[in-house]
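Summary for the steering committee. One of the milestones for this cycle was to obtain a three-dimensional model of the protein with zinc ion bound, which we needed before selecting residues for the alanine scan. The sequence and ligand used are listed below.
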Amino acid sequence: MSTCLGFAAHEAHGALTPIRFERRALRADDVAIDIAYCGVCHSDAHQVHNDWNNTVYPCVPGHEIVGHVTAVGSSVSRFRIGDRVAVGCLVDSCQQCTPCAEHQEQLCSHGPTPTYNGKDRVSGENTLGGYSDHIVVREAFVLRLPERLDPRFAAPLLCAGITVWNPMRRYGVGKGSKVAVVGLGGLGHMAVKLAVALGAEVTVITTSPGKADDARALGANHVLLSNDQQAMLAATNAFEFILDTIPSRHNVNPYLMLLGRDGVMVLVGAIEPLEPIHGGLLMRNNRTLAGSIIGGVQPTQELLDFCAEHQVLPSCEMIGIQDINTAFSRLQTSDVKYRFVIDMTTLRYVTLE
Ligand code: NAP
Ligand code: ZN
């Protein structure tokens, strides 16, 4: 066992505060990782606020983890002390079922183990995430950080990146694809950068007029304000692929209208009931409305390698751990440019009462 310092929520509406807890002793196939950076996902806020009615407290969030190896179990073969590594949203799965065999561990038939707020498959204990100084993870769920990827900018790829990459690959986004990204936050900005890197023509659909210049700087060709009814009407049938990252209940019909023939809209944001969908809108143009959830270990490694090769780097606002509660508040008002990343060395300055 090792003593770990982190930040935890203790109730749905309280602040995150420092906590000391124990990490398990290394199992044979475990890797111990000192955490250098951890991204702040909107899902962390949802989980802390118990938006999904399943939060176990204390809750230590964080599933965009970058660091280096400090110890390995006796059967670990792929990593050595000192290696630069990363961990995403999953730390275990059954490794037996068809989805696991097909590198889709996030769809494990027996339920994958999330990096936090999950149940460890051996001990049954609640998993605790990356807002902490170190973590112990099964080797099969540890990713290699490529040489050419600056660790300061890698963390958001582990959730925001793979969540948008997976559906873009599945639905064949590529050169000349007409893509719209709804919501320019953590996921949305990665979708813009990755779609541009794949050669797509990208439109950002936003509620924030102030983000238009940023959207273009990120590589978007066009910007649409979702409350500009004229502009939305003019974009009817305009897109082949729409990625909807809105984090709460909303009306998808105004976006569905924008899909052209055989167009696909993928929901990755709101994990809750939506406002009613108009069947006729779906049928017209043979439109498809789909969902997608994070991604498996191997596809995440492929994404890290792609981003290293093409130097696709998330836009990070670096914060100290003491700023985490302000960062959570800013997420609620769409005030993020475009992913908060916690510099975990700032835990050094934290004192426990
Ligand atoms: P984020 O950084 O807060 O960005 C969300 C963006 O959506 C905001 O910046 C804003 O962009 C827009 N938005 C916010 N509220 C809106 C509203 N009421 N109506 C219209 N647009 C709104 O969040 P994120 O980290 O990208 O996460 C987005 C969602 O994806 C969260 O719900 C998160 O839990 C979920 N998620 C899902 C998966 C998955 O596997 N499916 C993985 C990770 C996260 P504009 O200012 O441009 O309008
Ligand atoms: Zn996430």
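Key point for the committee: The longest helix spans residues 297-310.
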